[in-house]
Amino acid sequence: MKAASMIVVELGAEEMRMRSPLRSWTSLSNPQRTELYLRWSLYLMALFILPGILLTVGSVADQAENIPVIRISLLIGLAVTLVLLRAYRTALDHYLGRPADHRLWTALSAGLAVAGSWTVLLFGPADGGTRSPGGAPFTPFVASVLLIASFGPVCVALTPRWAAVTGVGMLAAVFPAGVLSGGDPAGVAGYLTGLTIGMAFIGFSCRSFAWLTSIVWELDTAREAQSRLAVAEERLRFSRDLHDVMGRNLTTIALKSELAVQLARRGRTEAADQMAEVQKIAQESQREVRDVIRGYRTADLHAEAIGARAVLRSADVVCEIDLGEQADELPAPVQSVFGWVIREATTNVLRHSEADRCLIRLRTEDGRAVLELENDGVPDVPFPSQGSGTGLRGLRERLAAHGGELAVPTAGAGVFRMLATVPLPS
C-alpha cells in the first residue's frame, strides 16, 4: 500500500506539472508542444486499460460466478495502469537522453503484466463460464490488454533487438498459464499469435512517437546552433577586418621602434626621424581602426535588409522586403537608424517568435519616413522587449536622436507589428 501511495503521489505531481503548460499552451515552443502531445499519447495507452476491461466484463457482470474474477481483473488493471504511467514517462525521458530510472519501471510493468495475466487466466479458466455472449472468454482478453499495453515502454526504453527478446520472453511466460487454464496447446498458440501482432503494433507505435519527439528536439537544437554560428561568423568577420587593418601597421611600428632604439644607442640623429614615422603610422592606425568600428557600428539600410532576409531564410522564415526607390533618397543618418531597426527586429523575430513570414516595408508620408516591420508566430504573452527589455528601448533612443519615434500598434492574433518613423528635412 505504501508503494502504491507513492506512485499515486508521483503521478499527481506529474499531472500538476503537465497541467500548468496546458493552461499556457500558446507560451510553449513547438518542440515542447510536440513532446507534450506525444507524451500524453503514450499515457493514453496506459489509461485505456481500465475502460477496455470494463467494456469486456460488462457483458458477464450479471453472472454471480464471474464477480470474483471481475474484481481481480479490475484491481490488477488499476495496478498495471499506475505502474505503466510511470514506465512510459521514464522510458520516454531515457529515449530523449534525460536521467531516468527506466530499467526499474520497465521491468516492473512487464513483470506485473505477466503476473496479472497468470492470475486472471488461472482464476477464470476459459471453460469456467467466463465467456461473453459472443463466445470469447473475457479473461484471455484481459490478459491481452495487460500484455499489449505493457509492451509499449519496453519498445521505447530498450533497443529494438532487446525489445523483441523481452516480448518473446513475455509471451513464453504466459504460454503455460494459457495451457493450465484449460485451453488446448493449438488454441493457446493461436491466441499468442494474435497477441504477438497486437504487441508488435503497439511497440512500433510507441517507438515512432518517441522517435518523432527526438527528431523535433534535434531540429530545434540545429536551429539554435545555426543562429550561434551566424553570430560567430560575424565576430570572425570583425576580427578579420581588424587584423587586416592593424596587423601590418603594428608590425611596421615594432620594426621602426626597434630600429630607432638601435640608432639612439649609437647616437644617430636618424632615430628621431624613425620615431616621427612611428608616430605617423600610429595616428594612421587610429584613424583606420575608427573607420573599421564606424563601419561595423553603422548599419547600412540595404545591407541590413539583405542580411535580414538571408538570416531569416536560414531559419525557414519567408521575408518580404519592399524598400522602394525612396530608400536611396533618404539622408544617410536616417538610413543608418533604419538599418539598426531592421537588425534589432530580425533578432527579435529569431529569439521571441516562431514566425513563418516577415514583412519589411518602407514608405514616406506627411514628410516622414516610415519603416514598417511585421511578423507572425508571436505567442499570446507580453512581448519580451515591449516592456522592460533593452532592445526596443535602445531603438527608441536612436530614433529620438533624429526626432523620430517607435510605435508598436496592436495587430492581429499572433502578429507583432512595429513602426519606426523619422521626420525628413524639408
Give a nutshell description of this structure.
InterPro entries: HATPase_C_sf, HATPase_dom, Sensor_HK_TwoCompSys, Sig_transdc_His_kin_sub3_dim/P. By secondary structure, this protein is an alpha+beta fold.
Descriptive overview:
This protein has helices at residues 2-23, 30-47, 49-57, 67-95, 102-123, 138-157, 160-180, 185-265, 270-297, 301-314, 332-352, 391-400; strands spanning 318-322, 357-365, 368-375, 405-407, 416-423. With 426 residues, it is of the alpha+beta class. It folds into 3 domains: 2-224, no CATH class; 228-297, Up-down Bundle (Single alpha-helices involved in coiled-coils or other helix-helix interfaces); 301-423, Histidine kinase-like ATPase, C-terminal domain (Heat Shock Protein 90, 2-Layer Sandwich). Strand 1 (318-322), helix 11 (332-352) and strand 2 (357-365) form a beta-alpha-beta unit. Helix 7 (160-180) runs antiparallel to helix 8 (185-265). Mean pLDDT is 78; it is low at 1-16, 125-136 and 383-388. This is Histidine kinase. Residues 234-301 form the Signal transduction histidine kinase subgroup 3 dimerisation and phosphoacceptor domain. One of its GO terms (molecular function) is phosphorelay sensor kinase activity. Keywords: Kinase, Membrane, Transferase, Transmembrane, Transmembrane helix, Two-component regulatory system.
